[in-house]
Each structure stands twice: as C-alpha cells, then as structure tokens.
Amino acid sequence: MNKRSSSLPYFIFTALLILFDQVAKLTVKGFSLFGLEHTGMFPGQTIPVIGDVIRFTFVENPGMAFGITFGSGKIFLTSFSLIAACGLAWYLHKLSGFSAAVRIGIMLILSGALGNFIDRAFYGVLYGESPLFFGAVVDFIQIDIPDVVVFGQTWSHWPVFNIADSCVTCGMILLFVFNARIPSYAQLTGKTDTAAESDTETTENRSADINSSRTAA
User: Fold this and answer.
1) Angstrom distances, CA of residue 9 to CA of 15, 38, 58
2) 84 in a structural domain
3) Is the pLDDT of residue 71 over 90?
4) Which tens digit of pLDDT belongs to each residue from 118-128?
5) Alpha carbon of 148 to those of 17, 66, 77, 153, 156: distances in Å?
6) Which residues, at least 6 apart from 200, have a Cβ–Cβ distance to it below 8 Å?
7) How many domains does the chain have?
8) Enclosing domain of residue 146
9) 197 and 121: one domain?
10) What positions carry a catalytic annotation?
C-alpha cells in the first residue's frame, strides 16, 4: 500500500459537503447576512418536490438524527459531536494509503458530524433562539413510505432528515460493506511494519552468525 497517499482531497471534499449542507439549511431556514436577506420557509411548511414521495418539510430537531430527541443532556450531545469529529479527522488522516472505500466512509461521517454540530453549536446564537451549544438542527428532507404501525403509532413517512444525516448514513453503510478493509490499530500506527522489519533483521543476523560459524569451522 502507498503510505504517502495524501488525505488532503478527502478533507477538501469534507469541507465541500459541509458547505453544501449549510447552504441547503440556510436556504430552508432563511438568513439575513451582509445586506442579503432570504425569508426561507416557516416551521412546518412543506413543498412537494416529486409529488408526495419526496417533499421539503421544514422542522427543527433539538436532538439527534432523524428526529431522535436527547432531553436535557443537549450540551453533552453537542460536545460529544465535536469530540467525535476531532477523532474522525485524526482517523481519516491516519488512513492515508489504506482503502479508498474506508476513507470515503469516514469522510462522509465526518462531514455529517460537523454539519450538524454547526447547527447545534451556533444556530441558536445566530438566530437569537438559544444559548451557545443549545441550537436545533435544521431538517427538511421528507420521504414518503407505506404506512407502518409501530406500538400503536402510524408512520406515513420516514423521519425528516438533512444532508448531514444522509452523509452519516451512507458512510456507515460503506464501512459495513467494506468492513474487511478497515485496518487494525497495529496497521494504522505502522507497528506491523516495524515488527516485520524487526523479524527480518533478526533472521538476517541469525543467518550471518551461522555463516560466520561455518567459516570459522
């Protein structure tokens, strides 16, 4: 494997995905910035995209992906998102030279984690709705599904989500499919190569000692 393969393109695509996610969310929520003003949608508003199958429906989620709430522990969720993103960035850098599929999977998860972190950390302050780290995530993609009844509750559509959620989901699927290509910790840190070099060196030294003994005899 090529250990010198750069991680820079993956970080560039990460930044582009985050930008795409944020532009879409600001378009839905609206904004007033540098003299530019965009009204956006009002909460609960829905716009058909492909009939009733795919719609843009504006909802704000104070919890996790797909509308999962987190209660009063929001500060821990937001902090964990940042810590996880830092870990993923380090991991993506260390994956230099390994499977492209694994690197793309981590890149997608990192993009999604940071995209939703921005909402939670800053949107509350920017829109004057809540303190720092207590903002809500903007969701707007609604996909129709056949009616499903779960514990007496009828679901007529998939929980509303956003581009960042999609990135995380696609990344997880990629890692599941290419699980066999995920490197071990030893491979990631290069300890395997070091051990192999040490074994080779030891074997060469033993061969040299044997040859020296034979020559002396």
Assistant:
1) 10, 32, 32
2) yes
3) no
4) 999 999 999 99
5) 32, 16, 29, 8, 7
6) none
7) 2
8) 8-178
9) no
10) 139, 165
